[in-house]
Amino acid sequence: MTEKGLKYFFMEINEIKSRLSILQVLSNYNLVPDKNYLLKCPFHEDKTASLQVYPKTNTYHCFACGKTGDVIQFIEDYEKCTKHEAILKAKELIGITQPPKEIKPLQNMQETFSKLQQSLLRSQKAKDYLQSRNIKLTANEIGYNTGNGYNNMKYCAIFPLRDKRNEIASFYGRSIIDNTNSKHYYSANRKGLYPNYPNPSTIKLILTEAIIDTATLLQIPEITKEFTILSLYGTNGLTEEHKRVIAELNQLNEIILFFDGDQSGREAIKKHAETLQQLKPGIEISYVQTPDGEDINSLSLKYDNDCLLQLLNEKLLFSSEKSIEKEKPVNNHKPSHGLNILNPKKISYATGTAIYHIKGGLRKELDSLRVSLVIENPTTTIKSRSKLDLYEDKQVEKLSREASEKLGLRADLLEMDLSAMTDLLEEYRETQLSETETNKLKYQLPPTTIAECTHFLKQADLINRINELIGKSGVIGEEHNRLFLFVIATSYKMPDTLHALIQGSSGSGKTHLLSKIGGLIPPEDSIFLTRVTESSFYNYDEKYFNHKLLCMEDLDGLKEEAYLAFRELQSKGMLTSSTSIKNENGTIQGFVKTVKGPIASISATTKGEIYEDNMSRIFLIAVNESNEQTKRIIKYQNEKAAGLIDTAKEKEIKQFIQNLIRLLKPYQVINPYANKILLPQEAHKIRRLTELYHAFVKQVTL
């Protein structure tokens, strides 16, 4: 800067300081000091008023964080901008205007987008909008345009469209202002795809109707792990660029259309599905039945990710001969009889009076209807939260009165709603309980995974190869014990289940061995318990333990009654207890409650002596406490801490073993040599031991 320019610059600064007061600056940001000119500092988390304002000198100073300066410095710190931008803002506050400059978009699209991203970070209004739409900045590339360039997308959240080289080719803008006429804008000569061109190895492709729907799905790891997601540009937005890219995906075997739940969305599914069938003959075209009036983003706002995953699981195969209007999924989760059961863990019920949310779902005990209930005033959004039994009239009456006072709603109407909702919940619960096991959702493996697992299982020397995999999953040493325990753990699927008790001193690694082997069992089929109250086993649902592996990490801590129940589950595969319930007439009567197995089990103990009756029910396994095993464990721990162990590979192997187990099925095993087995006569309780031995041989065979 020349000497003349520098002189003019300082004259300009001095003029601003003389004409712009610090109180005027504070007022611009809705900051009002108290009578002593103190206020809570906006530059740090201030619980007490630490920032002192000096009107006479137009300066400020925070006695907590140390921030100090004049009017220009305050603007620069508050807006997190440059000195030049702060000066321009100050001029604007005192009415000094400059001829408007024509601002043109930068030639470098990436540079432009970087500035738009910075604008988003500075705009609380834009961030609030994205939060209101459940769009996370950590999972998406998003900017914000205040109008400096791309004037047709002023006040829009900006999403980049990328070309084949993964470079930004153009922009999509979503207005953050409630404008019902138009909310969607594109930069001139739109080109590129969102979020990018699909990977050439894509196998399953989801097409959404809108970019904000794709941005929503990109936030769900369970979906992005299995699917590639690509946005169309509205119901008529399957462009030539889309078609060309999809045609080039040589490994693609399925396209899923996930559009809005309205007439336009359903018509678009039919139109685009027929186009895609001609474009990619022979691949599977399916579609998601989005609930009426909903879209992907609106569903994410009302429910959790499980809702979208469930809808994807219930996708339907497209057929040009069938009407999309009439197709229904196997498990229809649309609101039924006034209840919204799209997410069984967050049931909702809306009336003209209030909105009722039941968190955590319903218990299956028919003698009560205990719920965690949230009542919301739809106008003020004020909420009342409580836990109650809807079968208890006095509790319902009390809640209606208390909620009425808090929410400003009529108590009699609330009570009527609760009564009607109770009837609906009873009907829904009875429907759920009547579902057979075959109608329950099962874990389904992709065809490629099934093929990979089947190939492994058909190879020779299976036992040793499985043992090797167990070692690579992170089980150190214990070659014989780990294989023995694995065979016992996998017996949970069979009619004749097995049980093991790991014995070892404190700190010997028995719990570690239990958790590692138990962790190889699919999580949907395994139960880990560290503490059990005396009668809790009797209070589970009838089929909770049915064909499950039960891992007891501290068998020594079980009380006598819990120990007895555990032994009964092991030997008989069933628990029965007599309890009392209140019938429909309010009379107390006896009731037999049943909890069914069978279970396989692995537990751990430090006791040197085992109860005699238990020894004949289980296989007793002593953990390896040798110095050599200790050295192996320490070496593994050191290498893991040094980053020399590939933990991601261990996790991958663990998941592969779980998938192997998922393919196991119970078959009848005939051992032609069984009549030649003679155990030593001195064996403890030889009758039960022989039965255990035969069961173990069957499990190894399977």
Précis, in short:
The chain has 702 residues and is an alpha/beta fold. Helix content is 38%, strand content 17%.
What does this structure look like?
There is one protein chain. With 702 residues, the chain is of the alpha/beta class. The chain has 4 domains: 3-94, DNA Primase, Chain A (Alpha-Beta Complex); 109-317, Dna Topoisomerase Vi A Subunit, Chain: A, domain 2 (3-Layer(aba) Sandwich), CATH 3.40.1360.10; 339-434, no CATH class; 450-697, Rossmann fold, CATH 3.40.50.300. The protein contains 23 helices and 25 strands. Strands 10-9-11-12-13 form a 5-stranded mixed sheet. α3 packs across α4 and α16 packs antiparallel against α22 (647-662). The protein is globular and about 105 Å long. The model is unreliable at 1-11, 97-106, 326-337 and 436-441 (pLDDT under 50).
Q: What order do the helices and strands come in, and which of them pair?
A:
Elements: H1 3-19, H2 22-28, E1 38-39, E2 51-54, E3 59-62, E4 68-69, H3 71-79, H4 83-94, H5 109-122, H6 124-132, E5 143-145, E6 156-162, E7 168-175, E8 184-186, E9 204-208, H7 211-217, H8 221-224, E10 228-231, H9 240-247, E11 254-258, H10 263-279, E12 284-287, H11 296-302, H12 305-313, E13 316-317, E14 339-340, E15 346-350, E16 355-359, E17 370-376, E18 383-389, H13 393-407, H14 411-434, H15 447-458, H16 462-472, H17 479-489, E19 499-503, H18 510-518, E20 526-529, E21 548-552, H19 560-571, E22 574-582, E23 588-596, E24 599-605, H20 612-615, E25 619-622, H21 627-641, H22 647-662, H23 686-701
Parallel strand pairs: 9-10, 9-11, 11-12, 19-24, 19-25, 20-21, 21-24
Antiparallel strand pairs: 1-2, 2-3, 3-4, 5-6, 6-7, 7-8, 12-13, 14-15, 15-16, 16-17, 17-18, 22-23
